[in-house]
Amino acid sequence: MLNRAKLTPYDLALYATVVLAWGFAWIGIHFQVGTVSPDVSVFWRFLVAGPVMLTIAVFRGDRLRYGPGDHLKFALLGVLMFSLNFLLYYHAAEVLPSGLLSIVFSLASFFNVWLGALFLSAPVDRRVVAGGLLGVAGMAAMFYPQFAGHAFPRGALIALGLSLAGTLGFCFGNIVSAKLSRQKTPVFPATGYAMLYGAGSVGLYAFVSGHAFTIEWTVTYLAGLVYLALVGSVVAFACYLTLLGRIGPDRAAYVTVLGPVVALAVSTAVEGFQWTIVAVLGLIAVLIGNVLVLRPRK
């Protein structure tokens, strides 16, 4: 059986930072949708975050010159993690409450384990299967009261599908990032370039779609954009991808287990998310399922 090292205080600090940053980021996404097209909002977010990441790389003394092969990987990471993932989630946020989106995103822990086994030869045991099934059942329980209610917006099923596809995009991006980490590629320049490639691809999509590159000049939109670009992207992804390189994509994805607790609390306060007994039981099932999936093998 595989023995894995215990988490260090530094790993735990990275965990806490990502959980809080992404926990509050979901409500930030909620305030980004509406007047401005979702693809344009994603474009602004990473057009700001990418250069900041590269600037930090310069101050750290990281090298910025890479070959075509490396840039191809950066571009793939950007399209998967910083373009497709967020574009789909921003569209889903037009329909679904931010707290429920965070629950869907928590399935990344389950997907990461299987993708890690497929592409990185990581081990899988029976708890992964049991935990994944429990997580899916819990998510279904949380969504059931919403679908059963007459007030649930049309297109909810499509939004759920979009968020699931976005989660898969994020997980495939994790595999690319893990391979870059194995090559000893520094986190900040790799992420900075990937964010710019992501911004470029989603910007091209917005241009072809005929969407105007506008900004909503309101406090909520601008505050959300600044938070998502600097805290939700630069700080959170720098910590998350560092953590991923240190402990692997399966255990790093544990942040997606704790993040929904923060996101649901914020959604309850800001969006008026309605709790039911079924929803509470569903949340408990999701958390237990993720713990089973990510608990280290002895």
Number of strands: 0
Biggest sheet architecture = none
Distance between the termini: 6 Å
Radius of gyration: 18 Å
What's the helix count?
A: 12
Q: Helix fraction?
A: over 70%
What does this structure look like?
- With 298 residues, this protein is mainly alpha-helical.
- The chain has one domain.
- The protein is 77% helix and 0% strand.
- The protein contains twelve helices and no strands.
- The longest helix has 29 residues, at 219-247.
- The model has no long low-confidence stretch (mean pLDDT 83).
Task: Produce a short descriptive summary.
This protein is mainly alpha-helical and 298 residues long. The chain contains 12 helices and no strands.
List the helices and strands and how they pair.
Blueprint: H1 9-30, H2 38-60, H3 68-92, H4 98-105, H5 108-119, H6 126-148, H7 156-182, H8 187-208, H9 219-247, H10 249-252, H11 255-270, H12 277-294
What key phrases describe this protein's structure?
298 residues, mainly alpha, 12 helices, 77% helix, globular
